[in-house]
Amino acid sequence: MTIINGLHIPTPRFFCHARAVVALALLMLIGGCSDTVEMTQDREDRLHERVTARWAAINLAQYDEVWAYSTPNFRGVFPKHLYQQKFSQLVNNELTGIEVTSYDSRAAVASVAVRVMAEPTKFASPFAQAAGALPDTIYESWLFVEGDWWYIDRTRKAR
Which helix (H) or strand (E) holds 33? Predict the structure, then answer.
C-alpha cells in the first residue's frame, strides 16, 4: 500500500498478494470438503452381493439376517426381535435384477432399483392369487460406511 495525503492506496503488488491469498483460501476450502467415497467397481460388485444376499434372506424369512444388513445406527436403535413384524407373508418376491441408479459420493449413498417378480402366497386373498405374479421395482438406499454397504431402513411396511 502507498500512503498519499494520509490515504492508504492499494498498489498493484497488494492486489497480487490479495489474489494469491484468496486463491489459497479457496483451494483449502475445496480441499477440506473433498471427503468423498468414490464408487469403484469392487464397491459396486460388493453392493450387488449385499443386495442379493439381503433379498435371499427376505425370501427365506430369515429376518434376523435381514436385520443384520441394516445400518449400524438403525440396528443400535431398532431391536432385532421387533424387526420381523414389518414383513408380510402374503407375497414372495423373486429377485430378477439390481441396478444402481445413482450414487452420491459425498454422502456415500447409492440408490438401487431392485426388480422382483412378486407372487402371492397361499395366505394372500383369492383376488391376489388370481392376479398371479407381477413384476415390481423397489427403490432402496444403501450407505457405504465402516468399509461395507448397509441398507438404509426407512421402517415402512414391506409390500
Answer: none
Please provide the average confidence, as pLDDT, over all residues in the chain.
81
Query: Mind listing the pLDDT tens digit for each residue in 16-57?
Result: 444 544 443 433 433 444 589 999 999 999 999 999 999 999
Give the Cα separation of 112 and 54 in Å (integer): 13
Residue with cell 392376479: 131
Residue type, 82: L
pLDDT digits (tens, 9 = 90+) for 143-157: 999 999 999 987 554
The C-alpha atoms of residue 118 and residue 122 are separated, in whole angstroms, by 13
Tell me the CA distances in angstroms from 75 to 79, 88, 99, one per residue in order. 7, 20, 25
In degrees to the nearest 10, what's the CA dihedral of 40, 43, 44, 48?
170
Q: How many angstroms separate the Cα of 53 from the Cα of each of 58, 69, 107, 149?
A: 9, 9, 23, 12
